[in-house]
């Protein structure tokens, strides 16, 4: 079963643009292949990543810090990640996606979230697009409940493993 499904009423030509391909390549690297080289290939040298809203307490990350974060956190905090894209809005240098997901946390608990991903894109010399920035809006209420509980569960598993 693919990790990503596209459930929109958009014209297929709109979802197969070079801009959309760049956004989907980023998602593919982050949630399907978990491949650092693939991820590095789809982002620009001046790439930035931000989790929003700011009330969640995350700071913006530049390319190198994001790559470390992806490898240490994003690639590891859930398994069996399945995302559904419900709506796509595009312009020449941006793609906005509304998506939902389901996954299993590292402690075995269900993880479901809603996302609004804003991809800022940069056209390359070859005409293709790379991702210059991602702003990832999460369900703040869900995150405020899930992540503290998940940290407690991880701590308990760690303590039990030391016995």
Would you kindly provide a written description of the structure presented here, covering whatever features stand out?
This protein is α/β, with parallel strands linked by helices and 163 residues long. The chain has a single domain, classed as Nuclear Transport Factor 2, Chain: A. It contains 5 helices and 7 strands, in the order βαααββαββββα. It has a 7-stranded mixed beta sheet with strand order 1-4-5-6-7-2-3. A hairpin with a 4-residue loop joins strand 5 (94-105) and strand 6 (110-123). Helix 2 runs antiparallel to helix 3. The longest helix is centred in the C-terminal third of the chain and has 22 residues, at 140-161. The termini are far apart. The relative contact order is 0.18. The model has no long low-confidence stretch (mean pLDDT 88).
Q: What is the makeup of the main sheet?
A: 7 strands, mixed
Number of strands: 7
What is the terminal separation in angstroms?
Answer: 38 Å
Known CATH architecture? Roll
SSE pattern, N- to C-terminal = EHHHEEHEEEEH
Strand-residue fraction?
35-45%
Strand order of the largest sheet: 1-4-5-6-7-2-3
Number of alpha- plus pi-helical segments:
5
Q: Give the mean pLDDT.
A: 88
What structural category characterises the helix and strand content? alpha/beta
CATH-assigned fold name: Nuclear Transport Factor 2, Chain: A
Count the domains.
1
Percent helix, as a range, is: 25-40%
CATH class: Alpha Beta
InterPro entries: NTF2-like_dom_sf, SnoaL-like
Pfam family, one: SnoaL_2
Domain SnoaL-like: 29-122
Protein name: SnoaL-like domain-containing protein
């Amino acid at each position: 079963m693919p990790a990503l499904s596209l459930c929109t009423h958009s014209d297929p030509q709109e979802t197969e643009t070079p801009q959309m391909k760049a956004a989907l390549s980023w998602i593919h690297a982050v949630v399907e292949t978990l491949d650092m080289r693939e991820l590095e290939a789809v982002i620009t040298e001046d790439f930035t990543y931000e989790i929003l809203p700011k009330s969640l307490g995350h700071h913006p990350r530049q390319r190198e810090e994001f790559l470390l974060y992806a490898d240490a956190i994003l690639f590891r905090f859930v398994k069996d990640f399945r995302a559904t894209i419900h709506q796509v809005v595009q312009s020449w240098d941006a793609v906005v996606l509304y998506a939902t997901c389901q996954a299993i946390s590292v402690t075995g608990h269900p993880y479901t979230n809603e996302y609004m991903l804003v991809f800022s894109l940069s056209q390359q010399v070859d005409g293709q697009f790379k991702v210059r920035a991602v702003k990832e809006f999460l369900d703040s209420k869900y995150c405020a409940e899930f992540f503290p509980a998940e940290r407690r569960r991880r701590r308990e598993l760690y303590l039990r493993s030391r016995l």
